[in-house]
Amino acid sequence: MSKKLRINIGIALLRIFASAMMMVHGFSKLQKLLNSDFQFANPVGLGETPSLFLTVIGEFVCPIFIIIGFKTRWAAAITAVTMGVAGFIHHRADPFSDKELALVYFVVFLAIALIGPGKYSVDKTAL
């Protein structure tokens, strides 16, 4: 197996697995939005409803794009910003164990935004 093939398979696995796990977090927020339950954190002062809406985009909609590899860099950047807000702003006063997962997702999606989707994607950005 060539080095390029291993790299592209690795990127696809990272992209798909991380996004699927992120969608698990985003699904409950999507349900809140669809059930008109707009009580949500307001970490950057936009309001509860806009914060919930933007979080659903970052945690559920963008990961769909990342999984299929369409507009991957933009979608990963949006998800990384969402996780950055969660880890660095929303959970800033919490113990590390409460912000750890958000920070891990932040780094993973930042890396995907920098690397791109790889060969096995709609965008087909081969390395």
Topology:
Layout: H1 3-34, H2 48-68, H3 72-90, H4 96-115
Describe, in short, the structure shown:
By secondary structure, the chain is an all-alpha fold. The chain has four helices and no strands.
State the helix count.
4
Helical amount among residues, as a percent range? over 70%
Encode the helix/strand succession as letters.
HHHH
In total, the number of domains comes to 1
Beta content: under 5%
| Poorly predicted segments | none
What does this structure look like?
By secondary structure, the chain is mostly helical. The protein has one domain. Helices cover 72% and strands 0% of the residues. It contains four helices and no strands. The mean pLDDT is 95.
Characteristics:
globular; mainly alpha; 127 residues; 4 helices
